[in-house]
């Protein structure tokens, strides 16, 4: 794609000998900033892979999702925890306090020669919390804003120069259509994302016209260049949209509102209510059209601007149906994983999944843990989303289904967050039995994380609810879990006691969504 000048700035700023004078105790850093779709992530990844040998201890890549229209940004605290896990910290020994976690991160980075890539940073605060504070490692940041990052080299990114954009298009569509190259250069305003969409479309559908008027006026721009780029991207997207078949559009519309960082093939098939083989074919088509990114083997996501433009075509009914199927896919797969791992535990009763959902059903406990390791971020994000959307029955059921996997993998802090979300959902649901379960599990999660003071109010609330329900077994279980630090021993002795009694057989069958 070119960008020779920008790559040169990164070489000077981030090479082992490129640390700036007076920054002996800080990490060399660079900030790539510019509007959406201009190629910031591509440039960062290109430089990273080209200069990987300069960082023999590896790469830490964080996508903070600072401008995703659906999925909330990763918080600074969540990002630090993810970095600690990536560095090999035992989740059972990670301290609870954010300040202590940040100090542990800096300690673990000391002396290492690594590159930390912070992608799509929403704010300076996020970046400052993730700086390793060691001169042996470097930090590369991308953002749509010119953040105030200490001692960082600035790499402002705009549209590609005409010569670079022309080379990109010629590589994609050849030299036999010079008029097409000239027209696309003019229409795409040098925006790499628009150029990629347009080039992919003309390479696969050469019979379609180039001109595609925007379906609606652009939002009020901040400046004239941004208005031109917005119009160029919208026109390129609309042209790609018109070239899609019905199933491909259906798949894109299903992916766009999905409130998860990325998805695998099985989840995409449930989202679109299509067979897996057909889904795989369509994903290859959308990837070739630059509408979907396979950012690592078997994991798919959309550029946030492509997602935004796709959502303009989505109707409320189809969006709700796709989201219902996504939640059911994860909830039923996690539930099956939980009972596979703990077959003696008494499972909660689940209503039927929505039509078109094909949950992945782990055959063994190890399969369940492997699936959980891959889908952990998606499960956590989806749990928060269901609680925020008032899908409260789903929220507490996802929490219950995740709990065994969280415990076995030692994700103590995640477990606290999960049961905090479940308590929130249970309170809004207004069901005393579910509240009692959620508060008891939250108390135990705090205990296992070493947060004994935080466990007290949750335990008192669980006991009060158990007394209100006149449920002596629940009262005994709450006392018992506070007395035993290891829940495994409790459940081995009382495998059927950890389910809200009123919820065992009363879940209604779900109507088609």
From TrEMBL:
Residues 471-513 are annotated as: Disordered. SUPFAM superfamilies: P-loop containing nucleoside triphosphate hydrolases. Signal peptide: none annotated. This is NB-ARC domain-containing protein.
